[in-house]
Design brief:
The protein has helices at about 10-20, 25-35, 50-65, 85-100, 115-125, 135-140, 160-165, 165-175, 190-200, 230-240, 255-265, 280-295, 305, 325-335, 355-365, and strands at about 40-45, 80, 105-110, 130, 150-155, 180-185, 205-210, 220-225, 250, 270-275, 300, 315-320, 345-350, 370, 395, 400. The chain is of the alpha/beta class. It folds into 2 domains: about 5-210, 3-Layer(aba) Sandwich (Rossmann fold); about 220-370, Rossmann fold (3-Layer(aba) Sandwich). Bound molecules: adenosine monophosphate. Adenosine monophosphate binds near residues 24, 25, 47, 50 and 51.
């Protein structure tokens, strides 16, 4: 099926083409007609399935086609509630892309930053507001937000809202909405609490369910290298020099890590650029542009900065560090192997990351194929007493991990001050019982 069969406005079709999308994803195919028809929808889908466009496109269309009941003022006509700042921002960015050229304004509201700019955006007038519940309630209490004219309400990632303890906030927001409205509720899982919420919020909803994102990764060739932390840079440089590698998106865990990898590659004579939350929006966009046009073959990014990166014909994704959350693996590798092309995803794993690797493999339901290199894993004693998930001690306001300052350590301590045991590969194994 093509987007042309979804009865979308020509300008939306143009914007979709501009975004590089060829065909609708299953959730888009199922949801767009329902939303256009004014139905309530209960969608079981994760981020990464194209869920955002499945509600953003028909919302933009309905708000464009149906005039507002308030001709005298710009009022909030659609509210999208998101559990996290990152998702809210990402959703807002998508609205900007899909809604380019339409006479609609949108703004994003979340906590952790000053409220001035958000209040200003509300004053200027916003037809569409994407918000996290806490800050939204705060601004409502201060009289900056009125939800009396909301026509379409979206509750995104409802299960995460519950997990994060936002359920009461969500209910308070819902109480401020008009009774007569269209409601769309999306959730990756449907625990009984979400079903109950759905029952309360939705009227005769249409159920839409798409397979979790795990199923989309089968088309991508995935492999794994066990490698000591200190040797990752050598392995990376070696792989980047190989001939079948057109371009690569390299994922690091921290901003500091991104900068270090770019520096190490430069020393090895490989030009790379890095993007992360510390870089200005301009710098990020320019780096991305050079990557997309092929001027730069290697882009190094954190998970947050890499969200929404769509590069047609990306040949390789390299997980230099294991992701903090196993789901991020699927988002990362989903950047390659798009639109029927082949893609390759290579993961590095040092002894401290075995636990995260196990979680990834559990999620995708298979073991990654192991490849050998000139830099086999030789350190088999974790550098912490109990390997923690790589959740950083400090998290930036945008949710990225921020590297901690290295502790000083004596020789042979792998940076921890604790002696490490060096063993030959095979004698002690890698803790995965292969
Ligand atoms: P989402 O689930 O909305 O977070 O989307 C995940 C990723 O898929 C985003 O990078 C979107 O830009 C991309 N995407 C959404 N719809 C399509 C489509 N029809 N074709 C290709 N990519 C898409």
């Amino acid at each position: 099926m093509s987007f042309d069969h979804l009865n979308l406005l020509p300008i939306l079709l143009k914007n979709i083409r501009g975004a590089g999308y060829q065909t609708p994803t299953p959730i888009q195919e199922a949801t767009i007609p329902l939303v256009l028809a004014g139905k309530d929808v209960l969608g079981c889908a994760q981020t990464g399935t194209g869920k955002t466009a499945s509600f953003a496109l028909p919302i933009l269309q309905r708000l464009t086609e149906v005039p507002s009941s308030r001709r005298d003022a710009r009022v909030i006509r659609s509210l999208i509630l998101s559990p996290t700042r990152e998702l809210a921002l990402q959703t807002w960015e998508n609205f900007q892309i899909y809604g380019k050229g339409l006479p609609l304004q949108s703004c994003v509201i979340f906590g952790g930053v000053g409220q001035g700019a958000q209040v200003e955006a509300l004053h200027r007038g916003a037809d569409i507001v994407i918000a996290c519940p806490g800050r939204l309630l705060d601004l409502m209490a201060q009289g900056f937000v009125r939800l009396d004219w909301v026509e379409i309400f979206v509750l995104d990632e409802a299960d995460r809202m519950l997990d994060m303890g936002f359920i009461h906030d969500v209910r308070r927001v819902v109480r401020a909405l008009p009774e007569k409205r269209q409601t769309l509720l999306f959730s990756a899982t449907m625990p009984p609490e979400v079903e109950k919420l759905a029952l309360d919020l939705l009227t005769e909803p249409e159920d839409v369910k798409v397979d979790p994102v795990t199923s989309t990764v089968d088309a991508i060739d995935q492999c794994l290298y066990y490698v000591d932390k200190g040797n990752k840079k050598h392995l990376l440089a070696h792989l980047l020099r190989s001939e079948d590698l057109e371009n690569a998106l390299v994922f690091a865990r921290t901003r500091h890590g991104v900068d270090r990898i770019v520096r190490d590659l430069k020393r090895a004579g490989i030009y790379a650029e890095g993007i992360h939350g510390d870089k200005s929006q301009n710098a990020r966009q320019n780096a991305l542009k050079r990557f997309k046009t092929g001027e730069c073959r290697v882009l190094v990014a954190t998970d947050i900065a890499a969200r929404g990166i769509d590069v047609a014909g990306l040949s390789h994704v390299i997980n230099y560090d294991q992701p903090m959350e196993p789901e991020a693996y699927i988002h990362r590798i989903g950047r390659t192997g798009r639109a029927g092309r082949t893609g390759k995803a290579i993961s590095f794993c040092c002894i401290d990351e075995v636990k995260q690797l196990n979680q990834v493999e559990k999620l995708i339901g298979k073991r990654l194929r192991e490849e050998k290199s000139d830099w086999p894993m030789e350190i088999t004693t974790p550098s912490e007493p109990r390997p923690r998930p790589p959740r950083p001690a400090r998290v930036s306001p945008s949710g990225e991990a921020v590297a901690l300052r290295k502790r000083s350590a004596g020789p042979g301590t792998a940076g921890t001050g604790r002696p490490v045991q060096r063993v030959r590969r095979g004698s002690a194994g890698n803790g995965r019982g292969r």
